[in-house]
Amino acid sequence: MQERNNSMENENVTMPVSEKYMLTIREASAYFNIGVKKMRRLAEDNTGRFAVFSGNRYLIIRTKFEKFVEECSAL
Predict the structure, then answer these.
(1) How many domains does the chain have?
(2) Structural domain of 22
(3) Do the bridges between strand 51-54 and strand 22-24 make them parallel or antiparallel, or are there none, so unpaired?
(4) Largest distance between two CA atoms of the chain
(5) Per-residue pLDDT for the chain (75 aa), expressed as one digit of tens each?
(6) pTM listed for this prediction
(7) CATH number for position 48
(8) Count of beta carbons in the 10 Å neighbourhood of residue 42
(9) Residue 1 lies in a domain
(10) Domain membership flag for residue 9
(11) C-alpha to C-alpha distance for 16 and 21, rounded to whole angstroms
(12) Which helix (H) or strand (E) holds 21?
């Protein structure tokens, strides 16, 4: 029983990016086809709107960023 629990803890759970609520800068840049530097600048400028600073990294709230992209005419 204990061996089974240990094996479950060691498995990396991978989730498709399209199902994640928050994305890292690299995940978001790949998903939205925007450069990493541009995505980081957007996150720094829009903290609280669609980006969150957690510890030492920015996380992008995917659904809010999708709305942001739809509303803006140029990035």
Answers:
(1) 1
(2) 14-71
(3) unpaired
(4) 56
(5) 556 555 556 678 889 999 999 999 999 999 999 999 999 999 999 999 999 999 999 999 999 999 999 999 888
(6) 0.80
(7) 3.90.105.50
(8) 24
(9) no
(10) no
(11) 11
(12) none
